[in-house]
Amino acid sequence: MVDYTKEIQERAKRLLEDKKVDAVIGYRQGTVPMMNEPILVRETGKTDQLYWDSFCGVNLANYLTKRKERLAVVAKGCDSRNIIIHLQEGQIKREQLHIIGVPCLGMLDRRKVWAKLGDKEPLLVREEGDQLLVSGRGFEERLKKSDFLQDNCAICIHRNPVLYDELITDPVKEPQRTDRYEDVRTVEAMDSGARWEYFEKLIEPCIRCYACRNACPLCYCPTCFVDESRPQWVGKSLDPTDVRTFHYLRAFHCAGRCTDCGACERACPVGIKVRQFTKKLEKDVWELYQFEAGMVLEGRPPLDVFLPDDPEQFIK
Amino acid sequence: MSEPFEPKIITFLCNWCSYGGADLAGVSRLQYPPNIRVVRIPCSGRLDPKFILASFRRGADGVWVSGCHPGDCHYIAGNYYARRKFALLKGLLEHMGIESGRLHFSWVSSAEATKFQQVVTEVTEAVKALGPAQHFIKKMPEVA
Amino acid sequence: MIEKILSKKEFNDWLKELRKSFEMIGPKTQGEQIDFAPLAGDSAPELSFQNSRLSPKGFVQPASEKMFQFTVNPEDPEAHILKEILQETSSRLVVGIRPCDARAFNLVQLNFVNPDIQDPWWRQGRERLTLMGLGCSNPCSTCFCTSVGGGPFDGSGLDLLMFDLDQDYLIQACSENGEALLKAGPGKTSTEEDQKKAAQLKTKAEESIAAQVSTDHLKDQPLLGLFNAPFWDEVQFACINCGTCTYLCPTCWCFDIQDEVHGLEGIRMRNWDSCMYPLFTLHGSGHNPRGEKVQRVRQRFMHKLKYYVDKYENGVACVGCGRCVQFCPVNIDIRRVCQLMNDYKAN
């Protein structure tokens, strides 16, 4: 079993020593259990800070937009797809990037671990093969990692990086195309009143902090539509209609671009299942246009192209 | 005696085809329901999803967007891009709970006055059947 | 100040009695988290929790607060007049607030209610509240209140402080209001035995706080030296400017005032705003003094750990609740940054 951390550190050190890149973007071990911090390393002496475990859920492609230097970046499957999207959308140039691809076995959701532990606060969390050892004051538990995957990781079909300059280990086995849209279909089966209620309840805790937007690699607009004031499309308060408008329109702006990396859901401080907005669009883009975001570098996003015979049964 | 419900339907018509078709319908004295409120846009491709959301937020009971037939766009390909946008937007809004029947799209050329009349009638009837819009209306902020 | 001991049953009965004169607010499960909320009917506060996800600052400074209203309706005789929306004045009792969150109100008060300027909305919101705090028998691993002038059983922001002694509560009065309330309430004066148990609980809690953060040098650090320190470049990288820290923080107070107009009516309201957002400091001219992320990240920590220290000479503007540490999506840790700032030696 390859030691991912060691491999990443060695590759980063070599790249910096050979002056192939100006800096390496990776993760550092977090100061609280089950969290890691993205870091930028410029010096070979500091590459030993780089770290990898099953809590590296932050999408590092978020840190690439509009940077000018040559960068190495540690990228999982979904991250590499977001890098492709950045390249397609002109946010960074291919020559600037050296992608250290990491075949990913899925990231774990600390919220699920908390829910399982109830009142017990985890103080130390270690991984041992496919198990998670969680200990705190007066308790120790062994959990099966596969029971605590992030929602998006549980249905992931692109674990291996799609674009990379080097892989730190052999590619992992890709699951067959599983049914990724069960939750979307559940809502599709409801009538419009029930759907309204479902989404009403979903976004009720929203505090308009914009963590979802800022964690998303796709949201790089210098002025977000939320901040436009002439005219003002969306109010800034917690009015439920404004909260909805923000989420729906943000989801639409990610249509055909979202790679389901889960960064939004992971970042939300109040635990909203933000992916429920984008999953429907992802399903429609797949079914209508047979398109998956960020898989092929020589492509354009689906709303940037058209076919003469695109589906139009809904148009009178 | 209460008045029957008369929906307000915000209608986005592309300048070159649909607006022309609407104008021809008027000039030909074709009768059609008076519920549409027309906003002229240069091309259906100009339509930003924000406009549809803004219409519903302002209390529109229905929204209808109409453009040139594919292949006839004055700007060559605007309506092709619009077609994809519309498909995804309609899917999203109806998924979120806006009743299907409030959001409509059509291709109407500048010669199709009769088609325009037909579509207006169809859209108005569909929206009327649903009653006034209940959801997504922004009034004064509902906050503490 | 008096101290009483009462059984948990007596306490619950007392709360029922207090409902006659107060609107009751306490911790309540909302979805996946616990937050302070008005407690309807006879529902009891859920007091076995570590801390709420959002701080109770929202009861003094709501996330969205209407301040004024106006109309341009020509038929209204009061058209074109900005009318103040009268605030509620009814008394509220916040049961189960933690000492850190209560102390936060004291820190924020220096900004909102001082001889030079008062914010009447904030003041009114604060004056309505009576704070019945619950000391932390079981502090979180991310708490560091003892490093910033507070403590798990610090009564300085509270009217009453409760010690959970299993079957009973020992309640200390920490203010005149608290004392009056406690005198009129049930329970007996605490015995020496009870007091010993309470003191042990307090010591145990204080000792269990693992995180130790040094703040002793912050006052003496040269302002510009800290401002230009090289470590900001490293600290700021991970930040995504999301605003989570500012919204969860009990001592963050920034807001944005905006008018919303609908037809002929309008209101002026204030919403929480965050210094993390790029537009926070955007001038009308187009100039933005904090247009770069590093400037914003630096500003937040400098404000809380240096500017506030220098201006008010009241310690740091942080109560060690640990929410930002726990919920920052990229694990930027204020404890680490504070240590960096405290230990920094300019060349």
Topology:
The complex is a heterotrimer of chains A (316), B (144) and C (347).
Chain A: H1 4-17, E1 23-29, E2 36-41, E3 71-75, H2 77-88, E4 97-101, H3 110-117, E5 124-128, E6 131-136, E7 139-144, H4 151-154, E8 166-167, H5 182-188, H6 192-202, H7 211-215, H8 240-253, H9 263-267, H10 275-289
Parallel strand pairs in A: 1-3, 3-4, 4-8
Antiparallel strand pairs in A: 1-2, 5-6, 6-7
Chain B: E1 9-14, H1 18-27, E2 36-41, H2 49-57, E3 62-67, H3 78-95, E4 103-107, H4 113-130
Parallel strand pairs in B: 1-2, 1-3, 3-4
Helix pairs in contact in B: 1-4
Chain C: E1 3-7, H1 8-18, E2 23-30, E3 33-38, E4 64-71, E5 83-84, E6 92-97, H2 99-112, H3 120-127, E7 129-134, E8 160-165, E9 168-173, H4 176-184, E10 188-189, H5 192-208, H6 223-227, H7 232-236, H8 244-248, E11 255-262, E12 265-272, H9 293-312, H10 323-327, H11 334-343
Parallel strand pairs in C: 2-6, 6-7, 7-8
Antiparallel strand pairs in C: 1-9, 1-10, 2-3, 4-5, 4-12, 8-9, 11-12
Description:
The complex is a heterotrimer of chains A (316), B (144) and C (347). With 316 residues, chain A is α/β, with parallel strands linked by helices. Chain A folds into two domains: 4-109 and 149-169 and 177-304, no CATH class; 110-148, no CATH class. Helices cover 30% and strands 13% of the residues of chain A. In chain A, the strands form two sheets. In chain A, strands 2-1-3-4-8 form a five-stranded mixed sheet. In chain A, strands 5-6-7 form a three-stranded antiparallel sheet, with no helix packed on it. The radius of gyration of chain A is 20 Å and the shape is globular. The model of chain A has no long low-confidence stretch (mean pLDDT 93). By secondary structure, chain B is α/β, with parallel strands linked by helices. Chain B has one domain (9-130): Rossmann fold (3-Layer(aba) Sandwich), CATH 3.40.50. In chain B, 38% of the residues lie in helices and 16% in strands. A four-stranded parallel sheet of chain B has the order 2-1-3-4, with helices on both faces. The mean pLDDT of chain B is 94. Chain C has 347 residues and is of the alpha+beta class. Chain C folds into two domains: 3-208, no CATH class; 218-343, no CATH class. Chain C is built from eleven helices and twelve strands. Chain C has an eight-stranded mixed sheet with strand order 3-2-6-7-8-9-1-10. Chain C has a four-stranded antiparallel sheet with strand order 5-4-12-11, with no helix packed on it. In chain C, a hairpin with a 2-residue loop joins β2 (23-30) and β3 (33-38). The longest helix of chain C has 20 residues, at 293-312. Chain C is globular and about 65 Å long. The model of chain C has no long low-confidence stretch (mean pLDDT 93). The interface between A and B is large, with 44 and 41 residues.
